[in-house]
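Example 3.2
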Amino acid sequence: PDEPAPAGTAPWTCNVCRSSQRTRGWRCPFRHRHCRDCMVRWAEASVSPTCPREGCGYHLGEHDLEDLRVSSTRLEAFRANRLEQGLVDLQENADSQVTVFRCPGAGCGAAVVLGAGEARRRWSCSCGAPPACTGCGASPYHYHARCEEVQPLRARWLAWLQGGREAYKGLERRAVREATAQQKALREADFQRLAVETGFSIQAMARHSELANDEEWKAANCRLCPRCRSAVEKTNGCNTIVCGQNAHGGNRQPGCGHRFNWKDAKPYRAA
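Structure, written as tokens:
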């Protein structure tokens, strides 16, 4: 209930409900007087309440709502609305010396005010949204690139994922094949030169070529036994290997008999 008016105060009429009052009521700076019940209903129903008197235009402040003793929920909503309006005014003012960066989190109204010319920085909101750049809003924050470089870099990365990586790997495999072929040709040329200089026979050159091909085949199909370093071939079956024989017995060949996993063995490298 409203407080009674001081003793000796003449009755007055509320401008809203037109009832005669002997209470303190509420009065705007322009002396427009209204009863507390009408003002509380008015303040609770309006987002940005003003004096109910037509043409007055006085906007109620936080102290007015506290004086009217509105609910705590309404008071918090009023404060949030005033803060939001202040941020909007800062953003829309072309002459403002500050900028406003808003939290990118869904449903979050938090913001940070930055001074003119202030360098971008990583800002993390208490709502739990991913940290973002105050300069361009990009998330995650880009430590090693300027704001204007972020989108072109992302476009290049997506292009790499969509096809550039496979193209690069193809070029890489091609380079390996060409390097291998070049090395083979150089070895053949060196051997032929040596054969001419030392008088090696055609049979010796053929045998050398055969050995070189054998080394290449072992490099492509064999791995090394971890114990004796012998070349071991996996023909079929599981990855369990026994050096010198089949994993389940039979087909004995020179080897130390060590049991190992094919995936863990090092690949054979041509001499």
